[in-house]
Amino acid sequence: MKAIVIKLSAESDKEKISVRQEVKTIEAISAYGIESSYQSIKDNPQILGEKLSLLSTEYDLMLIIGSEILIDRSLIFDILQNHYFLEHFSIAFVNEQKQVIRLFNGEKNSDSLKSIYLLPNVSNVEDQLFNESIRAILQDFMTWNASSQMKCLNFLMDNKSSFQEIILSQMKSFKVKKYLIMEDEGIMQLILFDSINTTNFIDQMSQLFPQNYLASGINFSLEEWLVRRLSQRRQTISTAESITAGLVSSRLSMVSGASQVLKGGMVVYQSIMKDVLLGIDNQLTIGDHVYSHACAKAMAEAIQTKTQSDFGLSLTGVAGPGEDMGHPAGQVFIGIAQKGHEVESYKYQFNFKDRNQVRMTACRQALLLLAQKILSNKCS
């Protein structure tokens, strides 16, 4: 078997990694008869994801240490959302008490099991947590073959502090001691490791948070949830996209069964196309008026009316990298029209240097808005 220790670091930290640390790590793993290696990767989720995919065919065991993105759980969230890693790897997390908590057990049998271990509080391989955890990790890797007891609940984020406080109080009443809370772009995952009555707990959560609770399951996908819920309600949606140029409808169409709910959409990237295809008042598309609540509302209402959908979603804004007509890069207006209800619009400021990050985040936010509408009493 082969193992690799992946040290996450900023570019400026790469020079600081000492040979002594590397040798010590390799010796610790080699004591278990496992061939080992060592690598430093820039502290970037996308780069790490690509690297892990490349290394996964070569290594049976990966130890990932030393990163802010491990501490804030964003990397763990990304890995648990990646179907490839869920199918091929057992994934474990080492908490502050040096306990190895298995997050997911993969699809492999015990003879061919591969594992990823995440150590969020380790800054280098000489850290006390690493030294005290390495033996437990290797023993766990060599002997573990039990099924996962993990349960996962997914919520739309609301008022972050009060929302978490209520959830924490509920877990206390259910005597939940082992858990992990992860947040990513408007979605919160609550992962439970205790053997509790999950059905009662989910019932309690869904009653307390009827406009927040989405579904249970680690393989949660916002798009899949939207398509399934709209299909259950026999409701449809259409999109009018400028800044995102079809990203929203594309994400929905990736889900099997999307044809039952997604009627279609229009990419109205240039201002004139908003007039020609949507037929909205050209006064709303002259100059900087195209970046406004009024324009977003008109676009959403037009696409909803033209397609006779239950929902119409619109997006207009400035992707960047620079400002446009006095509007800063990252400023986005999202409109949502629901049949029989007043049209609404929302303004956001996404502060990314990369224009495509703005576009992808705007797309995600539009889907979150749709989820909020579906969960709200207005959709009953």
TrEMBL record:
This is CinA family protein. It comes from the Bacteria. It holds the Pfam family CinA. InterPro entries: CinA-like_C (IPR036653), CinA_C (IPR008136). Residues 221-373 form the CinA C-terminal domain. It comes from Facklamia hominis.
